[in-house]
């Protein structure tokens, strides 16, 4: 889709990696908090931009940040590892996408990423 939207060949790997990272973060959050809810992926091309939005349904007001309360040391280490991995993933996304906006709402987290298109995309 990115290629057809006019994204330069040199950027396609960055698009793949950033979108994969955003999807992995959302899937992990859902696995822990709301496994029956879908992760939403939107792709669009308008003007000279290709945009991808990955949305999860883990509420921002969840006191555990979408992670379960832990009682066992092994579970605590898993939560710390997951938190650090999620933060690293967001840093990776920010480094790969040309423009990134991360919004946390009561309905979930939305990661909006975009890249320049070489040609104007018809609307």
Automatic annotation (TrEMBL):
<keyword id="KW-0808">Transferase</keyword>
<keyword id="KW-0418">Kinase</keyword>
<keyword id="KW-0723">Serine/threonine-protein kinase</keyword>
<dbReference type="InterPro" id="IPR003594">
    <property type="entry name" value="HATPase_dom"/>
</dbReference>
<feature type="domain" description="Histidine kinase/HSP90-like ATPase">
    <location>
        <begin position="2"/>
        <end position="115"/>
    </location>
</feature>
<dbReference type="GO" id="GO:0004674">
    <property type="term" value="F:protein serine/threonine kinase activity"/>
</dbReference>
<dbReference type="InterPro" id="IPR036890">
    <property type="entry name" value="HATPase_C_sf"/>
</dbReference>
<dbReference type="Pfam" id="PF13581">
    <property type="entry name" value="HATPase_c_2"/>
</dbReference>
<dbReference type="InterPro" id="IPR050267">
    <property type="entry name" value="Anti-sigma-factor_SerPK"/>
</dbReference>
<protein>
    <submittedName>
        <fullName>Anti-sigma regulatory factor (Ser/Thr protein kinase)</fullName>
    </submittedName>
</protein>
